[in-house]
Amino acid sequence: MSTTETPVEHLDVLVVGAGISGIGAGRYLKTSHPAKTFAILEARGASGGTWDLFRYPGIRSDSDLHTFGYEFKPWRDEESIASAPRILKYLRETISENALEPHIRFHHQVVAAEWSTEQARWLVDIAHPETGERHRLSAGWIFSAGGYYRYDEGHTPHFEGRERFTGPIVHPQHWPEDLDHSGKKVLVIGSGATAVTLVPAMAGTASHVTMLQRTPTYIMPVPKKDAVANIAGRLFGPERGYAIARRKNILQQRLIWSFCQRFPKAARKLIRFINAKALPEGYPVDTHFNPPYDPWDQRLCAVPDGDLFRVIRQGQASVVTDQIETFTERGVQLRSGAELEADVIITATGLNVQPFGGVPLVVDGERVNLPDTIAYKGMMLSGVPNFAFAIGYTNSSWTLKIGLLCEHFCRLLSHMDHYGLDICRPVPSDPAMPKRPFLDFGAGYIQRAVDQLPKQGDRMPWLTSLSYHSDVKLLRSDSVTDPELRFSRAEVRAAVAR
Fold this sequence. Notes:
With 498 residues, the protein is α/β, with parallel strands linked by helices. It folds into two domains: 9-151 and 352-497, FAD/NAD(P)-binding domain, CATH 3.50.50.60; 156-223 and 284-349, FAD/NAD(P)-binding domain (3-Layer(bba) Sandwich), CATH 3.50.50.60. It has 13 helices and 27 strands. Strands 1, 2, 3, 4, 5, 6, 19, 20 and 23 form a nine-stranded mixed β-sheet that branches. It has a five-stranded parallel β-sheet with strand order 8-17-9-10-13. The longest helix is centred in the middle third of the chain and has 36 residues, at 227-262. 41% of the residues are buried. This is NAD(P)/FAD-dependent oxidoreductase. Belongs to the FAD-binding monooxygenase family. Keywords: FAD, Flavoprotein, Monooxygenase, Oxidoreductase. One of its GO terms (molecular function) is oxidoreductase activity.
């Protein structure tokens, strides 16, 4: 009895993730390489990534959409700091306008990827997240666009006595549709972007919302509407107006970050002054809004139109800076001895970092150990052929870098097509080059996972740039070729040519 194997479908590029990065990658591929075959694999059943996954009250961007949006698609909404539904609408318009629907394959979770230098291709194992059904695809390139955190699990530290609390305990990443907090006392544990979003969003209907933090975070009010951008749009039209607003905000972001880096004491004083002015007279600013680190050692939290400060002024919300000793039946007991009563507890305690979707990579039979690799131009890994990834800025709008990475990736494909090349592998010329973490950032979610991540070097092209203007030169203007980027042809193809 004879059996035949199901042929493995081959694609030129597999994009992993149908969020803001993967949708952008699909559009750049479709525009720059219309003849190439590609698919965007999405483990979930919907596009939009973060903006479809998170459903907690008030979810919004903490970057302006003139820079968080794509360079090729103007943001037309008047609100520059936008809610998740508005961002999701924008992303799905991008899919529709660029005819990307046929390329997106839902319920396709990449579980393993193995590279063959002989055949110059990846063999990729795909599983259906619900049924477990598996199949394989092969690809010339993998473009990992799934971000850096786990979609199926948020980070919740151990809380002593958690089981004693009689009310609901909710992590924002898994927000239940039927959670009713109307007229209830809500305790939000955390002080990051999610917490400062939740507090004002819930304060309108809760009896009171308390934000409990171990250490304060830098929090700055920003206008929800960008007056300059809206005027530019009316005067010059959506395309030119968007370009003007984008350039203005890129410069503004860079100036703020540079000022905080060069003059941390002055930046700290300025932020404190702004906070004190927005809070009630006599408020203990130095207790609740005075972080122990310098501005931009961790990301600043933006609050549109100062909404967090407003609900504090109105008495609808309060901030407590202390540590949890134990959960109780009625709330939490603090180290200071005080007890915070609550009907609902929200653990806005962060993300679990998971590089490249947790997919194990194997190159010619050898498992890739990510901490042993070095990031090349912030988009490839040393020793790993034909594998690119999209990680945005931590000190600016995420998508600013994603666009440049996608452009560079498409230029790299053009170069390889022109010279008949199949394989592209970054290799450091100096193995003893000093190394440091790829994401050199003080946020807790990064520090918890820093030993699982690739490294970066101390010089270009192994140094991961945090500057949009430097990256414009490196990724858009400079050549895609480099002495530390090795190109070759597939062994099978070379043998046939002989």
